[in-house]
Design goal:
This protein is mainly beta. The chain has one domain. Helix content is 4%, strand content 56%. It has 1 helix and 16 strands. Strands 7-6-5-4-3-2-1-16-15-14-13-12-9 form a 13-stranded antiparallel sheet, with helices on one face. Strands 8-10-11 form a 3-stranded mixed sheet, with no helix packed on it. The radius of gyration is 15 Å and the shape is globular. 36% of the residues are buried. This is Glycolipid-binding domain-containing protein. Pfam families: Glycolipid_bind.
Length: 193
């Protein structure tokens, strides 16, 4: 499975679970990719904004993620670093609950569902676990999020994966474009550009 080249930018309209907007810029760097973006939203009556700068190696494993934000709890920032073998540092500390995670997943972002799909490159009919270092939107706390992806359909320029996150009792089909970016994340976001 291969994806076409990423666009220089993409954006998503967040709707249903929250009202908001996300914009991401992509850049090829010496040893992989950089994704820099911002999301602003209101969810359950609480407003927040989250910015991120995520660095990925050539195999699409998250190597660093600097995340900053503002919400009613105040301004906050966190820095995650991965050794590429499933071990993490969060603000310099090594939380064992993140062992075995290869991706960062931001609660505030539809874009971060791109990362495991690129990293795993599943064939149609294949399913894989993709536990992630999950960063909450309001206070940027970092948790472990168990999730799975199964590639179920390839329609040329569109690909569909069945996604599940047992912690949230949530499952849905995710539709991606030819570059591996989410087009439709039911209940969360749709691609705007």
């Amino acid at each position: 499975m291969s994806f076409s080249t990423l666009p220089t930018s993409a954006s998503w309209l967040h709707k249903d679970a929250r009202s908001g907007f996300e914009v991401t810029y992509f850049e090829a760097i010496d040893d992989g990719w950089r994704a820099e973006g911002w999301t602003t939203a209101v969810e359950d009556g609480v407003s927040w904004m989250v910015g991120y700068d995520i660095r990925l190696d050539a195999g699409w494993m998250t190597r660093t993620a600097r995340v900053w934000g503002r919400s009613p709890v105040g301004a906050c920032e966190t820095f995650l670093a991965s050794d590429g073998a499933g071990r993490w540092l969060v603000d310099g500390e090594a939380p064992p609950h993140l062992d075995g995670c290869f991706d960062v997943d931001l609660e505030s972002s539809a874009m971060t569902n791109t990362l495991p799909v690129h990293r795993m490159r599943l064939a149609v009919g294949r399913r894989a676990d993709a536990p992630a270092a999950y960063v909450r939107a309001v206070d940027l706390t970092v948790e472990r999020l168990e999730q799975t992806y199964e590639r179920v359909l390839d329609e040329g320029s569109h690909q569909r994966f069945d996604y599940a996150s047992p912690a949230f009792d949530f499952a849905c089909p995710l539709v991606y474009d030819e570059s591996g970016l989410v087009l439709d994340y039911p209940g969360i976001a749709v691609r705007a550009q």
